[in-house]
Specification:
single chain, alpha+beta, three-stranded antiparallel β-sheet, 10 helices, about 45% helix, elongated
Length: about 325
């Protein structure tokens, strides 16, 4: 009798253990459990931890509540300004209602993926190339709104959408590079012209100051010499301004008045008969004319039959007139 009771107790314990093993479930912290009893949804969603179901009657479906990172395959499309591009993106979403995610849509991950691809193609067709390259924040917000509207009914919330890369044809890349180079060159020329304008104004002010004080020009010249000589050059090329010559000419007082080219110096008359007798024999030969502006003029007078002037330097020598009775 006792043995039969022990066997029955052991069988009951084994049945309870089997039942407990079949009914026990563990829901992780990032999951939620949705129970279907005879195919109908139970109102209570099982929280994380240990839970029990009726074996053979209930079915427990675990839904991951973590944020899912889903890459969107590259989509090729034509922008509004007729440029062919390839754009790929990434979608971050999570399940906010586990029951709705299982009931409203067959596979919510596949549904979100297809919706993201179609929305990305739509965004490409509605945008310009400049918007795709420089105004991505606005496009990301528009793409997020397009995905979030149908996903709300699926128990899914779109957390963030980002456009990763925009692939352009090689011809378009070269065109954009030329455009950027031309724009930078234009800005460089504008900056150079502005610098030249400012420099010209400063130089005009400096010239006005130097015109009032001519000595400032000489001081500036000496500063230039010092700056060039500091480089330890063996050859020094120094410009000599005409204004400095004029300044030196005004500053210098000559002992005698300059002799003009039109004046002629007449020799003193001889005072003795010996000088008179030697004058014709010792007549000075005219000097060789200097090669300058007067030389071509003398050649022209000779061609016209005009006797050229002997001395072209401005001082002519006439022979002494002979005395009467010589």
């Amino acid at each position: 009798m006792i043995e039969e009771l022990l066997v029955a107790a052991a069988g009951a314990a084994a049945a309870i253990a089997v039942y407990a093993g079949a009914a026990a479930r563990v829901v992780k912290q990032y999951e939620r459990g949705v129970v279907f009893r005879f195919g109908r949804l139970r109102d209570d969603v099982r929280a994380p931890g240990f839970t029990m179901i009726v074996p053979g009657v209930d079915r427990l479906h675990k839904v991951n509540m973590q944020i899912v990172t889903m890459p969107v395959p590259a989509q090729e499309g034509i922008t509004r300004d007729n440029v062919t591009v390839r754009v790929d993106a990434v979608v971050y979403f999570k399940v906010v209602d586990a029951a709705e995610a299982l009931i409203r849509v067959e596979d919510y991950k596949f549904a979100v993926s297809q919706m993201a691809q179609t929305s990305l193609r739509s965004i490409i067709g509605k945008s310009d190339l400049d918007d795709l390259l420089s105004n991505r924040e606005k496009l990301n917000q528009g793409l997020e709104l397009m995905l979030d509207s149908p996903a709300i009914g699926w128990g899914v919330q779109i957390d963030r959408v980002e456009i990763k890369d925009v692939s352009l044809p090689e011809t378009m890349k070269r065109s954009m590079a030329r455009q950027a180079e031309a724009d930078r060159e234009r800005r460089a020329r504008v900056i150079n012209a502005d610098a030249e304008l400012q420099a010209s104004k400063k130089l005009a002010e400096a010239a006005a100051v130097m015109s009032d004080q001519p000595a400032a020009l000489q001081l500036r010249l000496l500063q230039t010499v010092v700056a060039v000589a500091a480089e330890k050059n063996s050859t020094l090329v120094l410009p000599f301004p005409v204004e400095l010559l004029r300044f030196l000419e005004r500053s210098t007082v000559g002992p005698a008045a300059p002799v003009t080219g039109a004046s002629a110096v007449a020799p003193a008359e001889p005072s003795s008969a010996a000088a008179v007798s030697e004058a014709p024999a010792a007549a000075p030969t005219p000097p060789t004319p200097q090669v300058g502006d007067a030389y071509p003029n003398g050649a022209a007078h000779a061609a016209e039959g005009v006797e050229p002037v002997g001395d072209l330097t401005g001082a002519s020598v006439e022979p002494a007139p002979p005395e009467e009775g010589a």
